[in-house]
Design goal:
globular, single chain, 43% helix, two-stranded parallel ribbon, 7-stranded parallel beta sheet, 11 strands, Rossmann fold
Length: 291
């Protein structure tokens, strides 16, 4: 019988982080659950012993919190198998209506927090685990990270940036380290953290009912997301058990539809614009960077 996996999960107070924590624990695995307010997991802390659940106060915008959490993981468990990099939140409004300070704060959590956790995870997998054992880094992005929706321009940008970072990082890691990166792209799921998405006031130039963000706002008012977060956690868990970890994992038929639409749009763009690139080389030639 295989030994239980050790999970490091960020943003565990609600949403996917909470669901993933509960499911991994229910399967007999070990979880280091990190969040800004540890009291939010007091119910789980009373149900699971310290050798199964370690709850740590972590604000991912603070490098010292991240460093201390990974140090505690090594001290208590000595190894780490999976990092579920989930901490983040969503602000909804027109690009022109987004206060710049709010956009920067969202980037601090969704992008910089996630990438700093990623760097710490890779270092742990390489230096603290047994040589070649590696680990799995699960990056929780969003379908809008590839195919943005109106009203989610800045949020989509944080996820698009995380996706670019993750793809670049994956290409840097030598196979011998055995570190796998999977970008998870959920569609619309109902979670107990659904209210974490904050709808900001509408920009006055966009109040026409026919405008795209006005339509989105009306839909959000009446929306009941049909994605099941518990099924999400179960599916992610099953993927982790497999030998082949996909680089991308769209979750939900709506996510598949959004990614398919993006692919078709890119194909159309290539067909339409390829001719403009036929005569753009320097006369003297050169060596490109495409490998």
């Amino acid at each position: 019988m295989s030994s239980p996996k050790v999970w490091f999960i960020t943003g565990t107070s609600s949403g996917f982080g909470r669901c993933m924590t509960e499911y991994a624990l229910s399967q007999g695995d070990i979880v280091i659950a990190t969040l800004r307010k540890p009291e939010a997991l007091s119910d789980l802390a009373t149900r699971y012993p310290a050798d199964k659940l370690l709850v740590l106060k972590v604000d991912v915008t603070k490098q010292e919190d991240i460093d201390e959490a990974f140090a505690r993981t090594r001290e208590v468990f000595g190894r780490l198998d999976v990092v579920f990099n989930n901490a983040g939140y969503q602000l909804v409004t027109e690009v022109e209506g987004m206060p710049v300070n709010k956009a920067r704060e969202m980037f601090e959590t969704n992008f910089w927090g996630s990438t700093n956790v990623s760097r710490a995870a890779v270092k742990f997998f390489r230096e603290m685990n047994e040589p070649g054992k590696g680990g799995i880094l699960l990056q929780v992005s969003s379908a809008v990270g590839l195919n943005p929706l109106p009203g989610l321009g800045y949020y989509a940008a944080t996820k698009n940036a995380l996706e670019g970072f993750s793809e670049g990082l994956a290409k840097e890691l030598p196979p011998s380290w055995n570190i796998k990166i999977c970008i998870i792209e959920p569609g619309a799921f109902y979670t107990n953290g659904i209210n974490a998405g904050v709808l900001l006031p509408q920009h006055p130039a966009y109040t026409d009912d026919s405008f795209a963000t006005s339509v989105l706002r009306r839909r959000l008012d009446a929306a009941v997301f049909d994605g099941d977060a518990e099924k999400f956690a179960r599916t992610v868990y099953q993927v982790v058990q497999g030998e082949k970890i996909p680089q991308r994992l769209p979750m939900g038929l709506d996510a598949i539809e959004m990614l398919t639409a993006k692919i078709e749009s890119l194909k159309a763009t290539v067909t339409e614009t390829a001719g403009w690139s036929k005569d753009l080389k320097r006369a003297g030639g050169g060596v490109g960077l495409i490998v």
